[in-house]
Design goal:
Helix content is 14%, strand content 38%. With 208 residues, the protein is mostly beta strands.
């Protein structure tokens, strides 16, 4: 536990939509990322999720002993190209906008995304698969109709090793790499303290 949120171990990101909301399947937008953990870290995190899920199910059964629901868990096995298990993939989500069910008021929200020194990562950076980092989250149990489950609510992300996604626009097939020139970068390195959910990793290797 760190600050008001729980924080995962360092893992590998898959399909990270953490700077700009994904609107492909939901018009209201959804921030989400899948975090791949391995070995004991994966086992321990899965046990935490399972224990929280079972506690929630017991509570629901105490209120409705005859209740029967389809159960949903926010993880699944990650496999390589040969079908071998290589870890466990945990899914973190956060609605970008919506309507508060209690107040009826509309809302917008987004996760805080920072780098190793806790400085914000600019929104124009596209984070690719294979990047690594940690996720600050909340455990959010739910019961909607016949669906009972647990959501890992995405709140903050610390990117430790950033691999930037660059779409192939054909330039890579036209131009060669020219030596002797400086790379062009527009990354904002201004430090802004985003709170204590993450300890500063300044000075450490980006892929520790």
């Amino acid at each position: 536990m760190a600050g008001k949120y729980q924080v995962t171990p360092v893992g590998e990101f898959e399909y990270p939509h953490i700077l700009v909301a994904d609107t492909m399947h939901k018009a209201e937008g959804l921030y989400h990322v899948k975090l791949i953990l391995k070995d004991k870290e994966a086992e321990d995190f899965q046990k935490m999720v399972d224990d929280a899920h079972n506690s929630w199910k017991e509570k629901c059964l105490s209120e409705n002993p005859k209740g029967k629901w389809t159960e949903w868990l926010p993880y699944k096995s990650k496999q390589d190209e040969d079908g071998m298990d290589v870890g466990t993939m945990f899914h973190f989500k956060l609605k970008a906008s919506g309507v508060n069910g209690k107040t009826g008021e509309t809302f917008t929200q987004k996760p805080v995304v920072v780098g190793p020194n806790k400085a914000p990562i600019p929104n124009n950076i596209k984070i690719s698969n294979g990047s690594t980092g940690k996720v600050a989250y909340e455990v959010a149990p739910y019961l909607h109709g016949q669906s009972l489950g647990l959501q890992l609510r995405l709140r903050m992300v610390q990117v430790l090793n950033l691999i930037e996604y660059i779409p192939n626009d054909g330039a890579s097939d036209v131009f060669g790499v020219e030596e002797g020139y400086d790379a062009i970068s527009e990354v904002d390195t201004t430090f802004v303290d985003e709170g204590d959910a993450f300890e500063s990793s300044e000075g450490k290797s980006g892929d520790f």
